[in-house]
Amino acid sequence: xxxxxxxxxxxxxxxxxxxxxxxxxxxxxxxxxxxxxxxxxxxxxxxxxxxxxxxxxxxxxxxxxxxxxxxxxxxxxxxxxxxxxxxxxxxxxxxxxxxxxxxxxxxxxxxxxxxxxxxxxxxxxxxxxxxxxxxxxxxxxxxxxxxxxxxxxxxxxxxxxxxxxxxxxxxxxxxxxxxxxxxxxxxxxxxxxxxxxxxxxxxxxxxxxxxxxxxxxxxxxxxxxxxxxxxxxxxxxxxxxxxxxxxxxxxxxxxxxxxxx
Length: 261
Ligand code: ACM
Known about the structure:
Strand order of the largest sheet: 5-4-3-2-1-14
Order of helices and strands: EHEHHEEEEEHEHEEEEEE
Bound molecules: acetamide
Structural class: alpha/beta
CATH class: Alpha Beta
CATH topology: Nitrilase/N-carbamoyl-D-aminoacid amidohydrolase
Radius of gyration: 17 Å
Shape: globular
Number of helices: 5
């Protein structure tokens, strides 16, 4: 299976421009699954609920979904991308998995970062997994990474590949993913954005460093700050084997009765 990520610097509020750039960057890349950053079409620094609401879209419809669905039908690739999801009067910081068959799954960010708490509703769907091309897939959004329980839950539910779309501003996640991948025996494809946003007295610098990590904690690909698409061939079945050696199995050896609840 060929998996990859798109790393770029979306412009706040310029949805059509960000979508057009995405197509230009992705059109020539053959892959099975490509991950895009969190909130890739809108930008990150919403100053009010009204501003967020104006750029939010329902799951499975709206300009961002229609654009990515059309692109997936052309490229035959499946995309995981972050978007502001409207559901009634609530807005979630969500990731969609969209491919030639249509909408495959939605994940709603469970752990909101900093002032996202003033704008978004925390996820209410737990950690769902989805099957694409016979591979079990889980999604996370940015700050979810800091809770080991998030990826652990997906891995215990059978996820072989974690698609992690991000707008990282702290430097810790790319290295932490070596441990997250190793301790769960999963592949991680992390797509972070680059660039800066300065709006209404709020200043964010996004760290790039998108990467693909193997179930053994090896960094298969890691980039710096460049705008790029990187694709790598992986064998998702490697994530089905949780044995560390002939005596240890990552999951079978868990001592659930002695851990904190
Ligand atoms: C983040 O969760 N966007 C840092």
